[in-house]
Amino acid sequence: MYQRIVVKFGTSLLTGGTRHFQLARMVELVRQCAELRQMGKEIIICSSGAIAAGRERLGFPELPNTIIHKQMLAAVGQSRLMRMWENLFEIYETHVGQMLLTRADVEIRSRFLNARDALHTMLEYRIIPIFNENDAVATAEIKVGDNDNLSALVALLAEADLLILLTDQAGLYTADPRSNPDATLIPRVETIDESVYRLAGKSVSGLGTGGMVTKIQAADVARRGGTEVVIAAGKEPNVITRLVKGEALGTHFAALETPLDNRKRWIFGGTTPSGGIIVDQGAARALRHKNSSLLPSGITKIEGDFGRGDTVSIRDQDGSELARGMTRYNSEDLQRIKGCQSDEIAERLGYAYGAVVIHRNDLILV
Question: Where, in this chain's numbering, is substrate bound (predicted)?
């Protein structure tokens, strides 16, 4: 059923909620991945744990909670984490390769394409890519922030069929099962809206940076690219192989019927908007219901300082985000042409890059 699968392992899963990595649990995860690879499946891993591995390697030192100390721990721990994966996969005569990313690697289109090509080449040679955020060099400005959302970006890069987010819970519940005995598992989610986010609780392990909220965010990104997503318990026996075979475990998030093409995958998943464009009601309706491009006549306000070709957020008069897209005009130009007709652009600017501000092919509805 599924051919290309991304599996995300969180720190709490790999450590069993303790300060130490649980090798017995890790080898069981490896066994399942190796088994699927022998069946001809393409497996991609997104693994947390570099900072935890650094702490373990250095004997759990008492350190200030600063970015630079976390970078030091990640620098020590990432090689150790990768060595553990490599040694475990060697049991099954399986090659692995390390890929470290920051948000900059997916925000800049040339780097996005380079990462995609490297990933596809590894799969071609039957090597299992193991992704993690490059915490040793990442600052707050260029961090993805958590490996749930990183795994969604990897799913976009890979054009994966399935993203499996393994956690310490069986999936998404109607309430927090740790405090509410009447909470029931939600087996399938067709639409992600505010009501779904309200169901999400917070991580209690204290080991990772994610929680159920970030898993829902990741599911929302990945499903727009045509990837189905499952949140499931990592301790469930043979959970990976059973999910790939189609068994109903955890909470399943349906992929959108019309997935994004590769260019729009990058616009939505890889880029942080550089600024904002506020549009009137007529333009909002045209974007929502008529598959229209954005014209200058519908623009009422420009926010931020951005260049031509940057990704911007398009919002309605209430401030709700409608879409994201790559603008053909910079913010200074748009201040001069907002509200005008398309045939007036050249007169106002002395030049024109076309009649539309954002073409529908460079735009994705949110």
Answer: 48, 135, 147
pLDDT for 94-129, tens place per residue? 999 999 987 777 666 667 778 888 898 999 999 999
**Nearest residue to 273 via CA among 219, 226, 331:** 331
213 is in an annotated binding site: yes
User: Tens digits of per-residue pLDDT, 117-171?
Assistant: 889 899 999 999 999 887 666 554 434 557 888 898 899 888 899 999 998 888 9
Do 229 and 315 fall within a single domain? no
Amino acid letter for position 322: L
- Please indicate, yes or no, whether residues 119 and 219 belong to a single structural domain of this protein: yes
**145 known ligand binder:** no
Is 147 annotated for ligand binding? yes
CATH of the domain at 352: 2.30.130.10
Question: Is 210 among the annotated ligand-binding positions?
Answer: yes
How many Å apart are CA 226 and CA 55, to the nearest integer? 37
214 carries a ligand binding annotation: yes
d(CA 150, CA 49): 14
- Per-residue pLDDT reduced to its tens digit, 52-87: 999 999 999 999 888 888 889 989 999 999 999 999
Report whether 168 belongs to an annotated binding site: yes
Mean pLDDT is highest, among 209-213, 280-284, 324-328, for 280-284
What sign does the dihedral 120-122-123-129 (CA atoms) show?
Answer: negative
Find the domain containing 324 and state its range: 273-365
Residues 127, 39 within the same domain: yes
Q: Residue 211, annotated ligand binder?
A: yes
Is 272 annotated to bind a ligand? Reply is no
Distance CA 43, CA 133 (A): 18
Shared domain for 228 and 286, answered yes or no, is no
Query: Which residue matches tokens 């729009």?
Result: 264
Q: Do residues 76 and 205 both lie within one domain?
A: yes
